[in-house]
Write a structure and sequence with these properties.
alpha+beta, 6-stranded antiparallel beta sheet, 14 helices, 24 strands, 34% helix, elongated
């Protein structure tokens, strides 16, 4: 039997809703009864013209019957050509009715306006299943809401179960939480424990305590208790992780106390990381807040100091690997300084952990350079740190077998005791790692140089191509 229209007062809503009717008609084809976003009702004129008229989908009796997908056999929809219809039971009883022109639906003899949760036929079919076939538990309704809607819809869950909000929250205590501070987004009013007990829990705890003091009814005690417990567990896990990560780095070190202990700088130090790369010219400094480790710097052309070893940052924060390595170096050196130790015990090669740190090189060729420096580079070691002030130099020693070839020069400082007059501030100590680092820099130099030349519309001459090929095999300074 065709459903009747609502009273005249409700029908008055139809005026000034021509555009709304068009978008609704668009969504009656298929499973969707309503648009997913009510506010997006623009630019739909051409689309409506492409949709078959509802009357063409109806049979000669004036309605089209379609079986319900989420109910037992015999349940189905009667869809009329005037954008109304009903969900009928196997005994031909109308249990839910709808009218798309007035944007209302009827259940239990009462008419309601559609709300944003009401999107498709499946919504009503599951309401009917819960009411007339089998009521779900609160947890089953939660699972259905997360699956069907992607968020916790309390009204939807209440319709499914017949439970009040208070009953649902009682049954789901510790499973879902009121998300304080997200009142503007109805999809985030309630969230799961996994989402709530993560992220900035400190900020959430402050919000929960403030709201708890304002309400003073105990309703937010569960939030405060759960956040405090999660924070404590997170701190414990972090401490364990820090200790574990510190042991992941094989740090060997040397500390040389300065003769003059009246100044803030108390010692010079060096470390070797995982037996592959060494950092020299570290300092142990006594500051106002205690001792700390200083890292080598150099002065740029503008007179500004720049770290040679720069711990890696992403989105303005140090990576976890950088934090762990820096803490490991500081702990090793400061403990040695405090205990008067000069060096860490030597380890056999067999005792060292196998390491394969990734290398990334960033090179800027200096195409107009008239001196031996032909490129400037920064080298990234894993996710730990970057090495600045690396240079690509050309061997200009006449008579040398490598004359004219390129090599990688690590950051260095003047040293009268060194044969070359310089001492590397940071350098590889492992042959394989050194070849890997130098190879990455020279390869990137060639790539960037070729790109620059291509961009400038130039091609390498035969001698230049031969020189580039020779560069790939040059890995050591002459």
């Amino acid at each position: 039997m065709k459903i009747s229209r609502k009273n005249q007062q409700r029908q008055s809503k139809k005026t000034n809703q021509t555009k709304n009717k068009q978008i609704i008609a668009l969504n009656t084809v298929g499973d969707f009864l309503l648009p997913k976003k009510w506010k997006e009702r623009e630019n739909i004129g051409d689309k409506v013209a492409q949709i078959p008229k509802w009357a063409e989908n109806a049979d000669k009796e004036g309605f089209k019957f379609r079986p319900a997908e989420h109910l037992p056999d015999g349940w189905g929809w009667r869809d009329y050509d005037d954008l109304s219809g009903s969900l009928v039971s196997p005994d031909d009883k109308s249990v839910i009715s709808y009218d798309l022109q007035t944007e209302e639906y009827q259940i239990d003899g009462k008419w309601h306006f559609f709300y944003e949760d009401t999107l498709d036929r499946a919504h009503f079919e599951k309401l009917a299943y819960a009411k007339y076939v089998q009521r779900p538990t609160a947890k089953e309704a939660l699972a259905s809401s997360l699956t069907d809607k992607g968020y916790i819809g309390m009204r939807y869950m209440s319709d499914l179960t017949g439970f009040s909000f208070e009953k649902l929250l009682s049954d789901l205590k510790g499973v879902v939480f009121l998300n304080i501070g997200n009142a503007s987004d109805y999809t985030k009013t309630y969230v799961t424990a996994d989402e709530y007990l993560s992220g900035d829990m400190g900020e959430k705890l402050m919000q929960a305590k403030a709201a708890q003091a304002t309400l003073n009814d105990g309703s937010l005690d569960v939030n405060v208790t759960a956040l405090e417990a999660a924070l404590q567990q997170s701190i414990s896990q972090l401490n364990e992780k820090e200790l574990e990560n510190m042991s992941n780095y094989d740090i060997s070190a040397k500390v040389n106390p300065l003769k003059d202990q009246t100044k803030n700088t108390k010692a010079m130090a060096s470390v070797t990381i995982d037996g592959v790369i060494a950092i020299n010219d570290l300092t142990i400094v006594e500051g106002k807040n205690g001792a700390f480790v200083g890292y080598p710097q150099n002065k740029d052309k503008d007179g500004n100091f720049r770290d040679i070893v720069e711990f890696l940052k992403k989105d303005g924060k140090m990576t976890q690997e950088a934090v762990d390595l820096k803490e490991a170096i500081s702990k090793t050196l400061l403990d040695m300084h405090k205990n008067g130790e000069r060096s860490t015990p030597d380890k056999d090669e067999a005792d060292r952990k196998p390491v394969d740190h990734d290398i990334k090189a960033f090179v800027t060729p200096l195409t107009n350079s008239e001196n031996s420096t032909k490129g400037l580079a920064t080298v990234q070691v894993g996710e730990m740190f970057k090495i600045n002030s690396v240079r690509v130099n050309e061997n200009n020693k006449e008579g040398s077998e490598n004359f004219g070839k390129l090599y990688v020069a690590m950051p260095a400082r003047p040293d009268s005791r060194s044969e070359s007059g310089y001492k590397d501030v940071i350098h590889p100590v492992n042959k394989e790692f050194g070849e890997k680092l130098r190879g990455a820099v020279l390869k990137q130099y060639d790539n960037q140089l070729a790109w620059k030349e291509k961009a400038a519309g130039k091609e390498k001459s035969a001698p230049e191509r031969e020189k580039t090929a020779q560069n790939k095999s040059a890995t050591d300074r002459d």
